[in-house]
């Protein structure tokens, strides 16, 4: 557990092919995955406004969430930067829950912890859903701050429950049906 952030709740892997990455984890018994195709998600990348575009899959292994992300090469992002430096992909970030991103960043600054926020997501102008930061003095695997919300509680709760009862074969890749607040099998 991090003395600064608490327990890691997610390992985020940036990969060249999200489908191959989900199969990698499924072959190891981790699943089911929820697949999402994200486009025009508002954010800030290196202090510039962006509309993010990527594909991602989420699954649980115990209490640890596994995320695999394939960014669109046509949209600037920390994920594409990572693939440019590491084309085979790998662990790009560790995520932590926070109640309020700006308050956590203020707390870090008060402790004289030097960091740079590379990317944020959420509704403009504050982009308070996610923040990705790296420590200036010790760069490397990024830190993702995830603001708690009813949406994430619902989605990740459904995914966690699905993982607890998954038989390792049935509906290995699912979609989130937001209208009915449930997971549904993705047609193969």
Number of domains: 1
Query: Numbering strands along the chain, what is their spatial order in the largest sheet?
Result: 1-4-3-2-6-7-8-5
Largest sheet: 8 strands, mixed, barrel
Looking at CATH, the homologous superfamily is 2,3-Dihydroxybiphenyl 1,2-Dioxygenase, domain 1
Number of E-state strands: 10
The CATH first-level class comes to Alpha Beta
Low-confidence stretches: none
What fraction of the residues are assigned to beta strands by DSSP? 35-45%
Order of helices and strands: EHEEEHEHEEEHEE
What is the arithmetic mean of pLDDT?
A: 95
Helix count equals 4
The name of the CATH architecture is: Roll
Question: Would you kindly provide a written description of the structure presented here, covering whatever features stand out?
Answer:
The structure is a single chain. This protein has 188 residues and is an alpha+beta fold. It has one domain: 2,3-Dihydroxybiphenyl 1,2-Dioxygenase, domain 1. Helices cover 23% and strands 41% of the residues. It is built from four helices and ten strands. The protein has helices at residues 18-26, 78-85, 101-110, 150-165; strands at residues 10-14, 33-45, 48-61, 64-71, 90-98, 115-121, 130-135, 142-147, 173-177, 182-185. An eight-stranded mixed barrel has the order 1-4-3-2-6-7-8-5, surrounded by four helices. The termini are far apart. The model has no long low-confidence stretch (mean pLDDT 95).
């Amino acid at each position: 557990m991090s003395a600064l952030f608490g327990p890691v709740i997610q390992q985020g892997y940036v990969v060249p092919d999200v489908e191959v990455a989900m199969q990698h984890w499924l072959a190891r018994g981790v699943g089911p995955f929820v697949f999402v195709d994200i486009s025009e998600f508002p954010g800030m990348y290196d202090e510039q406004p962006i509309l993010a575009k990527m594909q991602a899959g989420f699954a649980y292994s115990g209490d640890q969430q596994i995320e695999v992300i394939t960014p669109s090469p046509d949209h600037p992002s920390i994920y594409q930067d990572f693939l440019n430096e590491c084309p085979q992909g790998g662990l790009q970030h560790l995520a932590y829950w926070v109640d309020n991103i700006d308050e956590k960043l203020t707390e870090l600054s008060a402790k004289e912890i030097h960091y740079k926020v590379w990317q944020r997501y959420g509704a403009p102008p504050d982009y308070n859903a996610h923040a990705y930061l790296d420590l200036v003095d010790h760069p490397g695997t990024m830190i993702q701050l995830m603001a708690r919300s009813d949406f994430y509680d619902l989605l990740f709760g459904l995914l966690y429950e699905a993982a607890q009862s998954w038989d390792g074969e049935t509906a290995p890749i699912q979609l989130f049906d937001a209208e009915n607040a449930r997971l549904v099998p993705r047609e193969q």
